[in-house]
Amino acid sequence: MAFVLAAAMIVLGIAQRTIFLEPNSVSLSATVADDARFAVVESSALNAVPGSQTITVSGSDTVFLAYGRTGDVKAWLGDEPYVDIRKAGKSVALSSKLVDPGADAEADPSTPAAVPETVTNPAGSDLWLQEFTAKNTVTTTVKIPDGISMIVASDGEAPAPTEVRLSWPTDNATPWAGPLIVGGGVVGLIGLIIYLLALLHLRRSHGPRRNLPRGPRMPRLPRVPRPKAIKASQINGSGKPLTRSLIAVPVILVSGLVLSGCSADFWPVVSPPEAVVSATPAPTGTAGPAQDVPPPAVTVPQLERIVTGIAALTADADANLNVEAISTRFTGPALEKRLANYKIRAADSAIAALPSLPTSPLRLTLPQQSSTWPRVVMTVLQDETDSATAPTALVLRQESPRADYRVEYLIQLEAAATVPQVAPAAIGAPIIAPDSTFLLLSPDQVAAAYADVLQLGEASPSYGLFEAEGDTFRTQVTELKTSRKAGLPATASIEFGATAGTGRTVALATNDSGSIVAVSLTETETVKPVDAGATVSPEGASKALSGITATAKGITSTYADQLLFHVPAAGSNEKIVLLGFSQGLISSTELP
């Protein structure tokens, strides 16, 4: 009975790993129409089966695959027709359908006409969290949560790949196979031991019997020859006793079965107790439930990829004075300063280039909470190889879904600057309206007020609003004016001016109900001869930019300032603090 039970257990355990074994993955496929240039694999399709997704796309010479937030993917497509691939109802299957947003918009007269985009290739877009490009076929395994979709294309002009296949690993472990196989071996071994003990008992039961009474003596019979003894080797082919061989067979069998069941898939898994995770409180200053808060414009890895690309392009453009290239990644005051430096260096190669962008990890990331455009992101970088260099703050802007992020402000932070507490990058911060009255000073008034302080000093009505201690820019401007006046000959006069610049004001909320505000200023320096026949001669960058060696009319040099402030909330006892600045000559012209 033990041998029958052992055989049944072993056979059942082996059957679980062979004929009864489930597949180790589930696959679903969808087809893209031949003439469609784009396809979108919706979040419902990617998460039709739990687990990480392996996606294989094929059917065109060039295969492009990227994933991003579903809203961003649809925003990039705009009015472009695309094949929508999603989970078909409640069944585990995929459906594909051609969607034409442009036709839907034309049917609704209240929908404004979309502005046509010149960019048609989705490769390299700043919206994607990750992208893949290959010839003929792309296969990748990812772990994508809800709310994320994939865009499939070729080059945006040719038809998209025609075959999309999704697969997910499944749990085909057989936790009772190991116990059944090993248990069967143990039961078989126990049965063998019982059988051997029974044989031993039977042998002993044939021992000497007790003496019986003697009867009459029988006549002696003739002796029969004794048969020759048979050796053990003549029975089993070896010199070993038969009982040892009988024992070795089940031992070897059980050992093999035990080793075959060493895989974790053969045994039950006891899950450790789940750790208790406390919920993270929502940051102060966010209104309404979390689902009503727009998502952050970018993720940290996404922004690191963007900034790394900008840094590489900037280094190449700076080295080659490439105006066209730098214009693709810079805008506003930051671009204005870069272009002026290129012009100056083209005229005088001895003048130094502007500082390059660090490529180290981001120290701070503050994206705008936004699902629309334009979008703004602020980040701080620190060169890890040169701790003496001040950190660099970037303010980037993306005008539309298919546009790249461009550097609008590039500012070196003050050595003693303390950036106020801001929301985590995963939450982001709301943009503050330029005319907001909830701050100590409206963002659109900060530039003009600070320019007045630079001009009038303590006589300015705005002087008490700004923190003077630690403001090295104000000190630098004052010292520069003094030295310029002292070095001017008696035949010339100098005038200084400061006004709010033309750059857009950018304000992002901080955790203390205040705001980080980026603004631009324009400073002018006008030098005129005061005596008849006298001339003035510009020097250095002013000479290179103007192309003038001497003039009897006078010359005006214009400097662009990029400034970063922390503006506290209205009613606060704190003052507006300058966090960083950047200044550069952008124009030098002869007076009319």
TrEMBL record:
Segments forming domain DUF8094:
296-587
Domain of life of the organism encoding this protein: Bacteria
* Keywords on record: Membrane, Transmembrane, Transmembrane helix
Q: Where are the transmembrane segments?
A: 176-200, 246-267
User: What Pfam families does UniProt report for this protein, alphabetically?
Assistant: DUF8094 (PF26366)
What is the name listed in the Swiss-Prot or TrEMBL entry for this protein?
Answer: DUF8094 domain-containing protein
Q: Which organism is it from?
A: Cryobacterium cheniae
